[in-house]
Amino acid sequence: MVIKVPDPISSEISPLNWQQADERLTVEFRQPGDMPGYHWHRQVEINIPFGSAVRYLINGETIRFPEGHIGIFWGVIPHRLIECDGCTQMGIINIPLSLFLALPVDDTLLNTILHGGVVISEARDLFGPHEIRRWYQDGQQQTHGRLQLMQEEIVLMLKRVALCGWQTLMNTEAGRHHRIQINDRKIRYIQTMLGFISTHYDEAIRISDVAGAADLHPNYAMNLFKQVMGYSIKDHITMMKINHARALLAETNRSILDISLTSGFSAMSRFYEAFQKQVGTTPNQYRLTTRKQTNDLLECIDKKGIA
């Protein structure tokens, strides 16, 4: 099955999907379905394809997850499934960021993912359809004991990935790693601040507003956020605005002025400066390049397939 994607020039879909469901650990086990455009969410996503490899466009880069290997990335990066020919089933696990931060898993693996890295397990078949199907069934039953066991087994899967080895397929901020040493109280603070930013990033919010949402002093909030996330509150707000703009540039016909305002920038000059700094190109060039890459790749898949 090859994903059929509408022409992005005629698509006026919303690229945003911030919902309460993002706060629950969920497991799906199904044949991959259509993804009509870039999608993003605030969970950490784990994919395990069976039957064949799958391919994503992640921030304009083609990323391949081989059959039976475990792929992991932070869903806040715009991503789009573009090819899953032969993939009969895929395990799709979404972990809330607040839970992911608290997992007793290798710091380097966690930090790579939190800094925009897309990783893949070096070993194949670390976990198979049987385990994922069981996690899916446990999730459907919604009993505390089964949900707790499901979570513990998913942690074991991540520990096995760290132990058996993994590769970084894409890393948007290479080399920027830090150690995560936080307790449950600090995790709740981070969760509150991230939730506030995800709801209000397109408004004229200040660091004091973010800190106030968690009932923290601005200086403490800034230091804690930098300790956990590895970058500042201001950087995170800007990243959210730019990711919003990226999705709109790729998927809609909106003018660049409209996109800059919709994404929360008060002036075009600030939008251009932030976009160029984070993406390395102008908004218009990003739009043209992304659409050309997407159309060329989808045409290649439709005509020849990719081995």
CATH class of the largest domain: Mainly Beta
Number of helices: 11
The coarse overall form would be globular
Instruction: Just name the CATH architecture of the largest domain.
Output: Sandwich
CATH topology of the largest domain: Jelly Rolls
Overall mean confidence score, pLDDT: 82
Distance separating the two termini: 14 Å
> What is the name of the CATH superfamily of the largest domain?
Jelly Rolls
Helical/strand content category: alpha+beta
Highlighted features:
307 residues, alpha+beta, Jelly Rolls, disordered N terminus, 47% helix, 2 domains, six-stranded antiparallel β-sheet, 11 helices, Arc Repressor Mutant, subunit A, 9 strands, three-stranded antiparallel β-sheet
Could you characterize what this model shows?
This protein has helices spanning 97-102, 107-114, 129-141, 144-164, 184-200, 207-213, 218-229, 233-251, 256-262, 268-279, 283-303, and strands spanning 26-30, 44-50, 54-58, 61-65, 71-74, 79-83, 89-95, 118-121, 166-170. With 307 residues, it is α+β, with helices and mostly antiparallel strands. The protein has two domains: 8-176, Jelly Rolls, CATH 2.60.120.10; 184-293, Homeodomain-like (Arc Repressor Mutant, subunit A, Orthogonal Bundle), CATH 1.10.10. It has a six-stranded antiparallel β-sheet with strand order 1-7-2-5-8-9. Strand 3 (54-58) and strand 4 (61-65) form a beta hairpin. It starts with 25 loop residues before the first strand and ends with a helix.
Sum this structure up briefly.
Helix content is 47%, strand content 15%. The protein contains eleven helices and nine strands. The chain is globular and about 50 Å long.
